[in-house]
Amino acid sequence: MKDVYITRIATFLPNKPIDNDQMEEKLGIINGKNSKARRIVLRNNQIKTRYYAIDDDGNITHNNAQLTKEAIERLCDESFTTKDIAILSCGTSSPDQILPSHAAMVHGFLKNGNLEINSPSGACCSGMNALKYGYMAIKAGEAPNAVCTGSERTSTWMKSEIFENEVEHLKELEDNPILAFNKEFLRWMLSDGAAAVLLESEPKGAALKIEWMEGYSYAYEMETCMYAGGDKLENGHLKPWSEYPAEEWGKRSLFAMKQDVKLLGENILVKGVDSLKLAMKKHKITTEDFDYYLPHISSYYFKEQLYGELKKQGVEIPWEKWFMNLSKVGNVGAASIFIMLEELVASGKLQTGDKILLHVPESARFSYAYAYLTVC
């Protein structure tokens, strides 16, 4: 089995950063009233700026596949071009369409010749699953390199017009036309962007060796928490959009991203630390065995709580090992972990031999992904 190294990382964040006061201007006001939930969510998540693929005139500047293509091109130069890519593995929570696959659409924009593609579906873990596919392919000697990506373009999923039909329907029913907090919660959390990493079997200059990767799912015991393209019923089951008549799609905002906030708060950290302990036990490491801990969290609201849960379950990680950049770039879902890692590498803090632990949760139905890296 071959060793696998991250030899390059690149990111692409579209347009200029958007501060908290500009968000509703970009995404639109629902029912003619400023959101009350916005202030609550922003106070808790402590995100200061994020990025949208929307220009100053409200025009869409990039779709998801185009964001990903931009990140990949920034990964390349004269010594490694897009034509040298052997495997293209692209993860996202927000593909531009149901079919063709996300990686196929990215490949279409690259126009770089024949190669193998892979499109893991899911939410935040899809970026890590894209990475694991490339990791396993190179480790098995099946390919000389792989470009693995995580990306999101969720801003258009959160624009006010997505919810207008539902609000109008509520007015007709003479109900209070205010969106449920579960639907509005994610509106003020998510950001657009993409990141790409190059995997190779030999380090070329500074590199990060992937020692191992692990993934865990709790879907066998947990109901759906975050979803899009369906509606959650009172019994906890998810009814897909394809089982609703077309006229109901807008009335129920079926294609908006939604979060069961209560289920999230009760379980995301408990299961996250449980799965972390499983990974650490399997690979016989302790919190003493890594120098940097990169947890992807959706909100700084969870930072202190995560620390508390780690301590409660006996795997306390000192604050000096934590590294995050959520407040500057927002929650970019599948891309967040790579954007964090790129900033850490660029910071100049890393020294040869340092160990890095990546920790990515996915609240969709509670999945978790891990990677353990060594600085070369």
UniProtKB/TrEMBL annotation:
Which residue intervals define the domain Beta-ketoacyl synthase-like N-terminal in the entry? 120-202
Q: Which InterPro entries match?
A: ACP_syn_III_C, Ketoacyl_synth_N, Thiolase-like
Domain Beta-ketoacyl-[acyl-carrier-protein] synthase III C-terminal, chain residue ranges per copy: 281-358
- A Pfam family reported for this protein in Swiss-Prot or TrEMBL: ketoacyl-synt
The UniProt entry, under CDD domains, shows: init_cond_enzymes
Record has GTP-binding as a keyword: no
User: What keyword terms does UniProt attach to this protein?
Assistant: Acyltransferase, Transferase
List, alphabetically, the Gene3D superfamilies matched.
3.40.47.10
Q: Which residues cross the membrane?
A: none
The protein's matches in PANTHER family, at most eight in alphabetical order, are given as: 3-OXOACYL-[ACYL-CARRIER-PROTEIN] SYNTHASE 3, BETA-KETOACYL-[ACYL-CARRIER-PROTEIN] SYNTHASE III
What the entry lists under NCBIfam families is as follows: PRK06816.1
Protein name (Swiss-Prot/TrEMBL): Beta-ketoacyl-ACP synthase III
Please name the taxonomic classification of the source.
Bacteria, Pseudomonadati, Bacteroidota, Flavobacteriia, Flavobacteriales
